[in-house]
Amino acid sequence: MRYYDLKSGDNYPATKAQYCFFLNWKAGLFIADGNFGSAHNVSENGSKHTLLPDLRQWSDVAFLQWKLLDNLGMGHAQFRYILQASIINKDTIAVLSHILVYNAGQQNIRGKSHMQWPGISFPMASDEVQAILGTPNGKGVAWLLAQHCGDEVVAGKVLEKVTVFFSRLQKCPCDREKCETVPMKLVNVLFCLKNGESGGEL
Question: Which superkingdom is the protein from (predicted)?
């Protein structure tokens, strides 16, 4: 499948990018779960010279998705929480594992998952948050706040703290029917926002 850009005249091959979001506009909650950008997919497939569309960054797609709420007649709602759920990115997991001194990767577990909600929180000024913002799952949030600060849904919002916690997923390791399910632990990162000074820190 290929797409044609009427403005530039370029042909863009399909990259199978996927952006999956869940929104709770009343709570100001934005959940990202299962996102694979075009650049990531092209890199994973070994295609170095694939022409990528201009609209491909998670921060821009997420912002436009939230803005669609206006078109649905739900009114203006500001971001309050951004949750990166069920993280599987290896680079992000490596950083989280270093911060927590605990393997943040998916694992089979018995009994309760380690560090379930409310998890552990780190303030904005901490080294832990700075490290998390540098991960693939964190930098998109930073770009969202920085690039779209002029829009009313983001205006005045700064990062207050970051909470890391684990959740459980009942999953069959062999994906066969009538097979015993094994609990899996999944790591989640919640970015909590607050009203701050315009032009200040993220």
Answer: Eukaryota
